[in-house]
Each structure stands twice: as structure tokens, then as C-alpha cells.
Specification:
By secondary structure, the chain is an all-alpha fold. The protein has 21 helices and 2 strands. α8 crosses α14 and α16 runs antiparallel to α17 (306-333). Mean pLDDT is 79; it is low at 401-452.
Length: 452
């Protein structure tokens, strides 16, 4: 593929991600707040962040044969993204019924899950390996900046709506704008170079997908993700109900708390691309997992002090940036391309089941103990214990050894792809351009023997 085509694809990929983050910042970030605004319980607000994710992952397991029949990754992605926008509009008209809200959000996530395996396979084809870690670090940072801005705007709009007694109308406007942003991302997807499923692509069942992961030294990292997600979701879905319901935080302060997490990611991600290339995903998982252990209990100490909560969110955002970038690199490099769509689709069921299991434990405890400070203290304390246990699962992941590989890197590729997408990260892009001229790039290769 010509350098001009690569730069164009990277530019449209960045623009598409930015449009997606407008949807995420103005839409799905406020699902729990929407449920509370309708007068439903704090437990329901916590479950809306996890139960639809699980139901959506079950539905998307019907998709691999359909994806194989479609063949075109671009056509599949555009269709799934358009459906996601449609279900946001359905959500607007389902506000009267909690079951309908859960159904609409579940279908929304099913369409979102359908994008994941196709995007990872497509992105591997479009983004040269030599610039992949840094490009995605910078793309994610720019996208997070867009999400940060959209969350600020959404929080301001909700605050004004609540003050004037029109909070539900404000939610309707937000979700409508989120749907429009998702349709915009569908347009940017349609402008990227198409790719077919890899030659020899196979649709695997659950047992076959499990064997692929088990036999791959790097792929075993996915097992750690199950434990990590279960422990994270034991507390994370209930932070919003804790702040809005228990601590009676206003919408504007709530928006500041949410957006600080995104801002911390923006500042951290450009510095993590080279780090994950040198250290590898395993160490990134370890550092982030170790730092995230005390976070749930710190919420009890920091709330309701706004400066303390913002500092905690900034700390959490840096750690989650490490975690998310390591997840992305694991998805792209741990599973062979011909099996990746099926493996990730099947794995998503286990992944969301782990998330649902963690949130179910938290929900049951809150239901039994009541949505009081004491109830949240028990839930958050148990989440700390679970995170310590999850970190032990990294023992099944072999330690990689460094290897030096000589690669020809297009010198202006990474810098132009970021600067042309908005000019917001110019300083970072210049630094990326300088480093991209280096001929010798250190990469990671797992040489540890299988422990089967």
C-alpha cells in the first residue's frame, strides 16, 4: 500500500475514533445517570453498565458466520455502526419502561461488540506494525480529548436541564447528538481502504477458541483479563450511584469527576506508546493492576471533597490508560489473524460474564445491605481483595525477552496522521516523527516455553 494511502487511512481512522468518542462522551457515559433521572434505583443504575454488555456479547456470537458471508470488513463495520446509532434513537423512546431501556442498551452493545473483532483485524491490515503502538497511543489520546470535550458539554447541558426542571429533555437531546456522531463515524469508516477477511479465515466454536488462547503464550494474557475485569467491575459500576445517590453530587461536579478520568488518559497515553513497546503488555498489566488495588477504598475517603475526587480520578486515569493500551496490543498480537475475529467474539462472552459476575456481587451486597455508606464500604472493600487475587493470574503469562528487529519506517507517517487530524498534538507528533526515523526498533517476542 502506498504511503499516501496509508496516511489517508490513518487520518480517517483517527477521525472515525473521534466521532465515536463524541457518542461515548455524550451518550453511553450517562446511561447510569439517565436511569437515576427516571427515578429508578441505584442498583439498576449500576447494572445498566454491565448487564446489557453481557447480553450484547451473547447476541454478537450469532455474527461470525454472517461476517464471513459479508466478507468485507468495511461493509460489516459500517452496518454495525449504523445499527448502534439506531438503537440510541430507540433508547430515547423507551424511557417509560426499565425493561425496554435494558433491551435498547443491550442491542446497542450487541452492535458495538460486532465492531470489535472486525476493527482489530482491519486495523492490523491498515496500520503498519512499525508505527502501531505509537499511532494508537496518539490516536487514543486525541480521541480522549474529544471525549473529554463532549463530556464537559454534556455535563453542562444536563446541569442546565436539571436547574430548569427539564433533565429528561436534556438527555433526549444528548442521545440524539450521540446517534448523529455515530452516523458520522460510519461515514469516515466508509472512506477507508476496504479489506477482506484473512485468507483461510475460520469460524471457531467456543471450545476451539479456548484451545487457541490456551496454547498461545501471549494469548494466555486473555485469562488474566477475565479476573481483572471481574475485580474492576465489582466496584466501578457503583461509583456513579455512590456519587449521585449516596453523596448527592450535582451533575456539574459529576461531569468534572468523569471528565478528569478522560483528561488524565489524554495526558498519559502519548507517553505510553514507547513504554508498552519496550516493556510489553505483561508489565503494563502488572503496574496498572497494582496501582488500581486501593482505588475503591479511596473513594470512601475522598468523597465528598471535590479536589480529592479529581486527584483520585487523575490517578485512576493514568493507570487505566496503561491497562487499555496493553489490552489493545494483546488483542492485535496475541491471536493469529485468521482466527482473531472468532476468538475475540467467543472471548467477549467470557469477558462480559466476568464483568457481570463482578457487578452481580456488588449488586447483591448493595441490595442486602442497602445503598448506604456502609453498604458501599463493604462492596468497595471486597473489590480491593478481588483485585489482589486477580493480579496473581499474571503468573500464567510468560515473561517476554527483548529482540532487536530492523525495520524500514516511513519517516513522516505517524506525525502526519496525527497532525492532519486536528493539529492538537503537534508537539507529541514532532517527537513521534523524530523517533520514527530510528532504524532499529526494539520489539517483544515471547520465547518462554509453553506451560501446558
Amino acid at each position: 500500500m502506498a504511503q499516501r494511502d496509508v496516511r489517508r487511512d490513518l487520518r480517517f481512522m483517527t477521525l472515525e475514533g473521534s466521532a465515536f468518542c463524541i457518542m461515548a462522551g455524550a451518550g453511553e457515559a450517562y446511561f447510569p445517570a439517565f436511569v437515576l433521572a427516571l427515578g429508578h434505583s441505584q442498583v439498576s443504575a449500576g447494572l445498566i453498565a454491565t448487564l446489557p454488555l453481557f447480553l450484547g456479547s451473547l447476541l454478537q456470537n450469532l455474527f461470525p458466520p454472517l461476517m464471513q458471508r459479508v466478507g468485507s470488513l468495511r461493509s460489516w463495520m459500517v452496518g454495525a455502526v449504523a445499527l448502534q446509532a439506531l438503537f440510541l434513537l430507540v433508547l430515547i423512546n423507551s424511557a417509560a419502561s426499565l425493561p425496554l431501556i435494558f433491551l435498547a442498551v443491550s442491542l446497542y452493545w450487541a452492535a458495538g461488540w460486532a465492531c470489535g473483532p472486525a476493527f482489530n483485524t482491519w486495523a492490523e491490515r491498515l496500520v503498519p506494525r512499525s508505527v502501531r503502538p505509537k499511532y494508537f497511543a496518539r490516536r487514543t489520546a486525541l480521541c480522549n480529548l474529544v471525549q473529554f470535550t463532549s463530556m464537559l458539554g454534556a455535563g453542562w447541558l444536563l446541569s442546565r436541564g436539571a436547574q430548569s426542571g427539564q433533565a429528561l429533555q436534556a438527555f433526549t437531546l444528548l442521545f440524539g447528538l450521540a446517534a448523529l456522531a455515530r452516523l458520522t463515524s460510519a461515514f469516515f469508516l466508509s472512506r477507508q481502504t476496504d479489506a477482506r477477511l484473512p485468507e483461510g479465515h475460520r469460524v471457531l466454536g467456543f471450545k476451539q477458541a479456548f484451545e487457541v488462547v490456551r496454547k498461545s503464550p501471549q494469548g494466555r494474557t486473555l485469562f488474566y483479563l477475565l479476573g481483572a475485569q471481574a475485580s474492576l467491575q465489582m466496584a466501578a459500576p457503583f461509583v456513579s450511584p455512590f456519587l449521585l445517590g449516596c453523596q448527592k453530587l450535582g451533575y456539574f461536579d459529576y461531569m468534572l469527576v468523569l471528565s478528569t478520568l478522560v483528561l488524565a488518559r489524554i495526558l498519559a497515553l502519548p507517553r505510553l506508546g514507547g513504554l508498552v513497546r519496550r516493556a510489553g503488555p505483561r508489565k503494563m498489566f502488572y503496574w496498572s493492576g497494582l496501582g488500581l488495588i486501593p482505588v475503591p477504598l479511596l473513594w470512601l475517603v475522598c468523597a465528598p471533597s471535590l479536589p480529592a475526587m479529581l486527584a483520585l480520578q487523575a490517578f485512576t486515569g493514568v493507570l487505566m490508560a496503561c491497562y487499555d493500551l496493553a489490552v489493545m496490543m494483546t488483542y492485535m498480537e496475541a491471536i493469529p489473524a485468521i482466527e482473531r475475529p472468532s476468538v475475540l467474539t467467543r472471548f467477549s462472552v467470557a469477558h462480559t460474564l466476568a464483568m457481570l459476575g463482578g457487578s452481580a456481587v456488588g449488586s447483591l451486597l448493595l441490595w442486602a445491605l442497602g445503598s448506604s455508606w456502609t453498604g458501599y464500604a463493604v462492596v468497595f472493600g471486597l473489590a480491593v481483595v478481588a483485585r489482589v487475587a486477580a493480579l496473581r493470574l499474571l503468573a500464567i503469562v510468560p515473561v517476554p525477552t527483548p529482540r532487536v528487529e530492523f525495520l524500514a519506517v516511513p519517516p513522516r507517517l505517524e506525525a502526519e496522521s496525527v497532525v492532519s487530524s486536528g493539529g492538537l498534538l503537534t508537539k507529541v507528533a514532532r517527537r513521534a516523527e523524530t523517533r520514527a526515523r530510528e532504524v532499529a526498533l526494539t520489539e517483544l517476542e515471547v520465547k518462554a516455553p509453553s506451560r501446558n
